[in-house]
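In the lab's daily routine, each protein ends up as an entry in a very long ledger. A line of letters takes care of the sequence, but it says nothing directly about the fold. The three-dimensional part falls to structure tokens, numbers that each stand for a local backbone shape. The outcome of that step, for a single protein, is printed below.
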Amino acid sequence: MLVHSRTGKWAARVLFFVLFVPLFALPMLVIVAASFSTNWSGAFPSGPTAEHYTSAVRGESLQALTTSLVTALTASLLALTFGTWAALAAASLKNRGEGVPPMPFRLWGRVLDALFMLPVAVPSVVVGLAVLVAFSQPPFLLNGTRWIVILAHAVLVTAFAYQSVSAAILRLDPMYEQAAASLGASPSYVLWKVKLPLLLPSLNAAAGLCFALSMGELSATMMLYPPDWTPLPVQIFTATDRGSLFTGSAVAVVLMGTTLLVLLAVSRIRTKASYR
């Protein structure tokens, strides 16, 4: 902890609870309370029931949850693959640019940084519109299919995978790569046996972040999803828009719980690099 004095530590803790409880904890508790209620006309909910969860884990809700899981897992895998590849390529370009007067390689590395961070700099609805316009005509006609939703999610979360892996590459000790190369290892062997294993903890963290962001994505999804591929956030929005707030709250709790369980499973993955 950066605060060392006893008074400062207590002040930091009080400030944390003052900000955390009303801004984060209380809204979550309200959703959980609403999911077990049939009426909320006063200060507290009334009519405790678990029927909302019965419908939240069956029928259309279960199908929407499966859709969200498949979309998030596929988009996270695509984002992690392309984000890692681009981060390694950008780091290689920047390293090659060291000592070169015009620095053309380092410039291209910065261009890659800007391109991959662009989806974060613009609203997600703009990304959804761009994907819709780009893939509504041959030869890549994806409009009306599940793949356009997965592609949009991958585009939105790739930036976070790229940034996480790029930051991890900067912290890598080049001594391991140099030692392997000095022993005659090929560049591909160094990549697969030395560099990527050292990056696995960061890859796990990036995968969890991409999955969580994809599970909660709504703006771009609303513009793209076909009737037979409805993710859970869309169903939550539809339920609350129709006035079914308590059912929507139960579905939202299911979404939060599923996301947290997957993130917990990802966080339990341990690699040899985690202990170094």
In short: The CA atoms of residues 72 and 215 lie 6 Å apart.
